[in-house]
Amino acid sequence: MNAPVLAPQTPLREIIPAERAALFERELGLRSAYDLLTYFPYRYEDLTAPTPSNLLGGALEGEENAAGTVISVKHQFLPGRARAKTTALLRDDAGIFTAVWFGRPYLRNQLREGMRLFVRGRVQRSFSGPQINVSLHRVTREGEAYDGEVLPVYGQTARLQLKTIRTVIRKVLPRLLEIPLDELPEDLQRKHALLPAREAYRAIHQPARMSEALAARKRVIYGEFLGLALGAAIKRAQRAFTGGALPMSAPDDLMDELERHLPFALTGAQRRVIRQIWGDMALPQAMNRLLQGDVGSGKTLVAAAAVLLAHRAGAQAALMAPTEILARQHAAKLATLLLPFGIPVEVVLGGQGAKARREALGHLADGSASLAIGTHALLEDDVVFARLGLAIIDEQHKFGVQQRMRLRVKGYGGNLPHTLVMTATPIPRTLAQSLYADLDLSVIDELPPGRTPVRTRATTEDHKPDVWAFVRKQVERGRQAYVVTPSIGLDNGKKNGEEEESKAAIVRATEVYDELTRRVFPDLRVGLLHGKMPAREKDEAMAAFARNEVSVLVATTVVEVGVDVANASVMVILDAQRYGLAQLHQLRGRVGRGAAASFCILVAPDDTESERLQVLERTADGFAIAEEDLRLRGTGDLRGTAQSGAANFKLANLVADFHLYAEAKADADAVVAADPRLERPEHDGLRRLLAAGETLQALVVSS
What we know:
The chain is built from 21 helices and 22 strands. The strands form 5 sheets. Strands 10-11-9-12-13-8-14 form a 7-stranded parallel beta sheet, sandwiched between helices. A 6-stranded parallel beta sheet has the order 15-22-21-16-20-19, with helices on both faces.
């Protein structure tokens, strides 16, 4: 007889009383049977191992367990919130210890001499011996050998207490375990010594020992990682199977030809990455590669090398940037780099004049232009390419999935173009391998020689007068400065494909601008730049700064991506505590572009914890900074970076559990290589794992 089956999406009200189901939905967002089954404990109370009294207090932190027989009890009534204090002396085989309870007057009628108790709490040692401030206790009956228990600790709210959550889950767990679960192939279970799925889900909620809880967590975490890695491996296999891209083989002497026409030598990292990209473009399936490079590492030159190969293969290329400022900057750089190779460049922007736009579109449609550089305007229906074979997307996390696909479907003859996505946002290598699991990864980990290091200092609000005095001194020496205000309340709205800044962000920038122009720098030329300005005004504000007609530019984080002004030597970032380290590092990269010594000053409130900001004082390595940001914040709160799309794992942590991800990825690659469609009977559970859907959330960032 088959075991009964419970559908994962069964409403919670069909399993527990409706009033309680409404409470769980309102307080915890749990709506279905599967939601409740996968509402995992975040830690456990281990009540299985009493510590002998002579060793109590040895733990550096946390609570300890003890067990003994009550030899005396004293009750006191106290004024105030505690109301009562109960003190008991207990004896075990190693000696005597004291147990203290606060705020539990009912114990007066429950505790008595001769009882055997198991107690847990924080321990303090004094001359009179160890004292345990009891948070939890159990009474054991006479002659009973207390075997202990492991209690799950769930996230709770003021209206839904831990005790209620424990009681509900314990009562309905047998019913929840009737949900069809993602059983792994037996060979993978044996290879990693993993529990069967049903046993793991039982043990994660009701472990008999901590070792069982840890084994259950390992099984669930491995399953989450395997789902992500399988989805990525299948997407890779589908691209290889379907082909559908124009192969572009690089002549043996193309690298030498490229270097001959450059005013500087390529770094070793640039050569390595260019060869990786050219190798992908030589294949009949579309390249799908992520290029990571720190600020100033030379990603634009690598993009130029990809465009050069496409041009030699008779194909066109398109580069899409998130802002018009950055698109124009790319156009200026690439037109110069590609001029010796006779590659015509056209610009397509939303704010373009009608005549210029008409001419640009004509040159793209008839194939006389080999490279189009633009913003979201490239996605419009009237932008038609004669032979698009390469799509380059800069700072790709600034675009939605559908926007990226709309560019890729413009490929020649119905084929997908080779796709290169670039980012200067430093993404930790551990996170990049999972966040962009279905992309090949190239990293430019070497800066060109001659880059001026940026000296960074974290300071507080009460030192702002000193900061402004330093800015004035730099301006008097002929330099320029950025003053960046936070995009507080960024609402992630979109307008014509670009992020809009909130009213609060604009108000803050305007207030700082008014303060500097009226009180701090009334005699200097101060400019203002924010995301709500019309495109023409933004371009003019940036152009005036680039021409040194403005000495101090007050800006929101619209300056974060790619604005180059060699004469700017100071970056002041206000309310620096609001940013992630990766975003602060990227903002810092706007200075240090010329020969002059450059400075970045991070200003935060006086009571700000300084450890995080001091990371930027110690290192200029963007990847080291990103790893530290990941360690300090976790994967769920890396603001201002591509990591905001990270997979929404129920239990897995990409930092702490990365070794399991590496194992799961190797297993997924092997499974898909042998069974690309997961059609074998032993892979039924893997198909169910993929069908769960949430494990594929991370993949949309690269689709």
